[in-house]
Amino acid sequence: MSLESVRAFFAEKAPDIAIIELDSSTATVALAAEAHGVEPGQIAKTLAFRIGERNLLVVARGDARIDNRKIKAAFGGKAKMLDADSVVALTGHPVGGVCPFGLATSLSVYCDESLKAFDQVLPAAGAIHSAVRICPQRLAELADAQWVDVCQVVENTTEA
User: Boundaries of each YbaK/aminoacyl-tRNA synthetase-associated domain copy (predicted)?
Assistant: First the structure.
């Protein structure tokens, strides 16, 4: 059902964008990065929050972490991540397939500045085995998103 709402969204608004469906799960950033052959940062994860009386989505690069001080400053309150049932009810998408496209309810969408580090990112497409390849600017345009700075990028360092 969720994949179908995303399919309908792209058929209407961006028929040039193909939905990629894989046999394996891409429900986590690590699984998605491996399946698509990209670095984890290129996976555009969609996170659902409640701030005060508002529910909203933040799309960020896969290896970024929400910065509580930045999100409070940007939205004027403490952010609480929504539980899986609330996410499904609001977006129509299962956790691991959440994206800002083909939503079940009208939600404000925000794209974190961290996405701009890449020419293309891969957000999910409504199912735990689907995604699209898209330029961050186009993602924001199609999702009617505003740009915010609410994340910190965690540098991957390995010690010998």
Answer: 25-141
Q: Where are the domains of the chain?
A: 3-153
Q: What is the pLDDT along the chain (160 residues), one digit of tens a residue?
A: 589 999 999 999 999 999 999 998 898 899 999 999 999 999 999 999 999 999 999 999 999 999 999 999 999 999 999 999 999 999 999 999 999 999 999 999 999 999 999 999 999 999 999 999 999 999 999 999 999 999 998 765 444 4
By three-state DSSP, how is residue 42 classified?
helix
Look up the pTM and report it: 0.93
Nearest to 111 by CA among 135, 63, 65, 147: 147
- The class that CATH gives domain 3-153 is alpha beta
